Amino acid sequence: MTLTRSSVDVALRGRRLRRTPGLRRLVRETRLHPDMLVQPLFVRPGHEVREEIGAMPGQFRLSPDELTAEAARLRDAGVGAVLLFGLPGDKDDQGSGAWADDGIVQQALRTLRAADPELTLIADVCLCEYTSHGHCGVFAGDTIDNDATLPLLARSAVSLAAAGADIVAPSAMMDGQVAAIRRALDGEGRQDVAILAYAAKHASAFYGPFRDAADSAPQRGDRKSYQMDPANGREALREIDADLAEGADMIMVKPALPALDILAAARGRTNVPLAAYQVSGEYASLVAAAQNGWLDRRAAALESLTAIARAGADLIITYFAAEAAEWLRKEPE
Fold this sequence. Notes:
This protein has a domain at 32-250: Alpha-Beta Barrel (TIM Barrel), CATH 3.20.20. It has eleven helices and twelve strands. It has helices at 21-26, 67-77, 104-115, 146-163, 177-187, 208-214, 234-246, 260-269, 280-291, 297-311, 321-328, and strands at residues 37-43, 50-52, 60-62, 81-86, 120-125, 139-140, 143-144, 167-170, 194-201, 250-254, 274-278, 315-318. It is globular.
C-alpha cells in the first residue's frame, strides 16, 4: 500500500514545537544558567605564577596573588562560585599542610574573600595533595587508617572555615568523615559553614589529568579500598544516605557523565541540593577531541552540561565554567 498525505493520520506532531529557535527556547525543559556553575581552581606557592596544566589545556596553576584577577575574570563571565585545591610547598606522611594556618588554600581563601566578598568559596577537604604518599588518609602499616584520618580531616575543615570558606567539601571517602567535620565545625562556632559531601565518588579512570594538575597521584597502590567501585549504583545510594544522616547539607556525585544514572536516582531520593563534578578526564577528552576537529567544543561542552543538569544536578563543578557562562549569556541553540 502506498501512503499518501491524506491517508496518514498523525496524532502527535512533535516537530510543531521544534520549528523555530523561538519555539525551541520556549518549551526547553532543562535550562543551564551561569549561577549553577562552579569553577575549580588550583593554587600553588609563588608569585605571579600562571602555569598552564599540560593535561588540561586552558586550566592553570595559580599563585595566590593571581587570584584577584582570576576572581574578576570569573565574575565578569557570570561565575559566582569556586572550588579550591592546593599544591603545598612541602608534604609529609600526615598531610599537615592541609590544616596549616598559612596553608596554600588558606592563603587563597583570604585573598579571594578580600577581592570579592560575594564570591562563594568552596574548599576541598582531603589529604592527598598534602601527603608524601599521595593517599587521602594516613597509613597504619600497609592500610589506610579510616578512623585515624577523621580528626585530621576535621582539623583541616575548621582551618579552612576560619580562613573564609563558605562550604567545605570532604572528598577523602572515609567512613564517618561528614559527622566528624560537622562536630568539629559546630564545636568551633562554625555552625554556618555548610558541608558539600563527595558522597558517591567512584575510583574512576577519569581522574588522571587532575592528579597531574594537583600532584596528587598515589605513590604506591591505589584508592580502590576507599573510593567506590564504578560498577556499584546501589552502594552509591547507601553512601548518599549515610552522608545525609551525618549532617551533609549538599551531596555530590563524581564523576558526572559516567554516573548519570546515579545522579538521576539521587535526585529522586533526596531534596537537598545535588552537585555533580564534571571531572578532569571528561574535560580533557572533550578538549582533545575539539582540538583535533572531531567535535565542536562549545556545542559538545554545553550538551554535556545540559545532560548533567537534566539528570538532576542543581550545581555543576566543571572546568568549562567560565567559558560556558559566557556562551550561555549569548543564548546558544
